[in-house]
Target: Olfactory receptor
Amino acid sequence: MGEIQKKNHTEVTEFILLGFFVFPEVQLLLFLVFLIIYVMSLTGNLLIIITVCYNSHLHSPMFFFLTNLSFLEICYVTVTVPKLLAVLVAQNKTISFMQCMIQMYLFLVCTGVEFYLLTAMAYDRYVAICKPLHYTTIMNKKDCIILAIVSWMIGPLCVVPQVTLISQSSFCNSNKINHFFCDITALMTLSCSETSVIETIIYIEGLVLACTPFILTIISYVYIISAVLKLHSAKSRQKTFSTCSSHLTVVLLFYGTSIAVYLRPQSADSMDINKLLNVVYITAIPLFNPLIYSLRNKELKETLCKTIRRTIFSSRINEILHTAFVCNISTPPRYLMDSIVPYEPKHMLRLVTHADIYMKQLVEDVQS
Model:
């Protein structure tokens, strides 16, 4: 029997991702929807990273962890969505065995890292609200970096056992994965090997490595809510709690979908439900995170608006310089037509002067 299983395992060199095969008539529409979500997720999270990095007043522990989370969300969608887009538009829906294992591993790594990053962010909010006088001492740069490094190290290490076991399993039933990416629960339903060990590891890791940070997060928020309720004015309570409401929203969304997908009994019939939950897990959370944090954090929202205005302003400046020094200057630009000084192509100094005047006006517009 062992030789037969080994033979069948070696024969499976690739898998077929079925994706959303029950909706063949809307494949193109789904492709456009997921493409828009992917682009918006990348743009939103990249904008947060750039904004925090280039604005020194945002160099605080809260925004340090937020940039880590934004980078993680970019990894999330990049690991899964590009292959999903290919499955939706291509006739060839295959993925090699090695690519499948790598995709599954990277996805589980991202999941594990997010558990601990969200816990570190909860601890940061706890210290900021419950111990404000000691905040800079406790949440110093060194400790923040250590918390981030630990989070990024636990994820890759904790998923090695189940990925190793599933990669050594025999897939003699079928090579068609009823999913849009190589999800471990979908692969377990295809395996003709004994999967009880893998299921046990998943449940143990779920209880220890996932529930532990969740419990720590809940404890942090118990202290936070207790401290907020002790404030005398309603305005103070609202202002204080608003600093962590965005994080709490992300925590509930992430843990809710994680528990629904991985900590319940799996069967072939539950794969369709898992696919719907994973759509939220993989696309909605990376898309909503930038919106949630930017809309509910006044400081970040204002800085994002200024960054966007500066970007637009910079592009207009480049357009002016390009027109002034690169383009044909035999005809004056439209925005110089109202100038009192006569336009003469050979008098480049006058052209620069006019451009300077226009730039000054742009600066005043941006600042206003």
